[in-house]
Amino acid sequence: MRGLSRPVLRAGWCGRLWAPPRRALAASPPSPPAATSGALSPFDRRLKRKQKNWAALQAEPAKCDYLREEVGGRIADRVFDITRTFPLALDVGSGRGYIAQHLTKETVEKLVQVDVAENALKNAVETEIPTVKVVADEEFLPFKENTFDLVVSSLSLHWVNDLPKAFKEIHHVLKPDGVFIGAMFGGDTLYELRCSLQLAELEREGGFSPHVSPFTAVADLGHLLSRAGFNTLTVDTDEIQVNYPGLFEVMEDLQGMGESNCSWNRKPLLHRETMLAAAAIYRGQCLREMYGNSDGSVPATFQIYYMIGWKYHESQAKPAQRGSATVSFGDLAKIEGLISRGKK
């Protein structure tokens, strides 16, 4: 686990990217089908767009970007680990360009940034890489098949209603031997906030409602990527802990990140007494000092899933056929014993 402290177009090459009319993009992102509360459509995508647009228009939008910049840098590190140059890359859910600011034009020659929030794209961080900005939904990428050499995504896909479809869209637009590198929030994200709110509601109101959105389990990610067509998969997890003065500062920064809850079954209003009780629980003034730090601050844990998947190409290494092994696992102990005797 790592910690953070809360801190105070080029037109010449974009014509080749667009898909046929079946994927045509309107002036604004396509409206999702009418959704109701339920497992198939857990999120209000229109509300999420409004939240991200609001966050991007704040006087100091970068004030709450510390987590996104940190994860964007770690995505860029994974791109640098691949010793090749990517002529054309796509950033899905780019926001204000949290990955692009860490990349170089020697690694990525051209970049397309896609986000559902137009204000985030308008206020994107300057980068040395030539970019095109496109307003589109992550579930409906308006690009031709086999277009991009690299697709990246940082802290965006946990808000899509149909994650398997989003992975298939990414696989569709990747070239053979292209790679997808992404990051999304995991299931243990903000467990301190979730538990404090639930305990406070149980005490003050006799029941509780979800205030933190549902997240994908890490055990499901590999299966979903494989179903979408990716191979040579890598999935790993990390945790980033940020220390805040209190619960209200946690919620303020989440709003500034555009990460407020947009679940259809969210509770629209929390009573003042419940919020004060949750803040006390969070700080550790009751219930045996559950989460509070010795300096009076409170931690917020963000679990991050990182994933890497490749689109198949015949040049890629292939696994050996089943049953073709010449040494069994049972022989490994014998080999280790021979090596030990040889050292003696």
TrEMBL record:
Coiled coil: none annotated. CDD domains: AdoMet_MTases (cd02440). Residues 90-181 form the Methyltransferase type domain. Keywords: Methyltransferase, Mitochondrion, Oxidoreductase, Transferase, Transit peptide. It is found in: Mitochondrion. It holds the Pfam family Methyltransf_11. It comes from the Eukaryota. InterPro entries: Malonyl-ACP_OMT, Methyltransf_11, SAM-dependent_MTases_sf. The keyword Oxidoreductase applies. This is Arginine-hydroxylase NDUFAF5, mitochondrial. It comes from Lepidothrix coronata (blue-crowned manakin).
